[in-house]
Amino acid sequence: MSYKVEIKQLLKFRHCRIYRSFIRDLMRDMNLKTKGTSYLFFYIILCSYANFRTSYIRIESNYFTVYPGHWVCRLSEITEWFRLKTRKQTVAVLDALTEKNLITYKLHHNDKIVNFKIKGWKTSNVILEYNAPCQKEDGFFFFPIVNALKLADGCKCSEADILMDIWLNTILNDLEVRGSHLGPIAYFRGLRDSALVSNTELAKRWGISQTTVFRVLRKLEDMNFIDVIHFTGASGSVIYTKNYMQTMFDVEEVYIDRNEVVAVFETEERLQADQTENQIVFTVQELMDETSSGSKERIIGSKCDGRALISKVRELLINTGFSELQSKAAIYKLSPLSLDCKGYIKHCIVTMAINQKEWHFEVRISSVEDG
Predict the structure, then answer these.
(1) Hey, where are the domains in the chain?
(2) Rounded mean pLDDT of 307-326?
(3) Which of 35, 47, 128, 181 is deepest in the core (most CB within 10 A)?
(4) For position 1, what pLDDT does the model report?
(5) Residues 6+ apart with CB under 8 A from 52
């Protein structure tokens, strides 16, 4: 019997459903600051106006055909949406999003009218074939989470950007995310293997200071957007998203019992401490050296399974274009996807790092009958 290894880069094909009415409410909330350099919230606003089908619009005496993924409006309207003071600032934001390969746009009629296109719109949303007006105040669209990471990670995020990053990374009833059965919880893949997160990690992600992280989270709590539960020491905090059930599923909100959350995550911390040995850490040199005793290796299941799996994953990734991983300086770490993994490896996360750059992959192993 042989084994089939399936590798999927995390975040690559994940989408979040966003309701236009939710974005409109945030646009009108003047208590939520939008000043930053991430532009995540601005980009989501533009996405919320994109068409699902071809339509026609008249602006003053000009007629435009608006295709799926496009929208045409006055530049002054976008300035109002973004709460900016000048058109020059609006164009600067559009230029920044264009440089990140997220949109394209053209200005018409003395730069008063803008026609913008959301790149990759058809890969995330269904295109309707018939012609009809598109409602902009209701309905929903799908947003690729990887774009949120592209905009939020390391750039200075505004309060609105931070709220959207939390919302887009909210998980509910996922067996692989501890605490998600209690309610909608923010889980930032790539920071940790659990929903626990520290202010230091969030400060790095959002491009702000730890003090500002604490202040923004407290403000979002006061505005009834989130519920933050802190743990003692260096454990971190968990963030539960409020009004998520009502907005996404039109059902009654769930009550988050803080005592139950604390009990769940304190148990997780003890389990993680007990299972420190349940990881594999290899360098390329150790992988290539079959005579290595590997006295410092930490194994799940058998030693041969771990070494063979990492070697196979490395080979597959190099063949698909990750040439940087050929370097002997690369570090490979294999860990269970959840604390329920026992015995031999079947489902795990592989982290590969070189020169302070990391890739995270989800690996599934299934048996294949020979012949």
Answers:
(1) 15-145, 169-274, 276-368
(2) 71
(3) 47
(4) 43
(5) 68, 125, 126, 127, 128, 134, 141
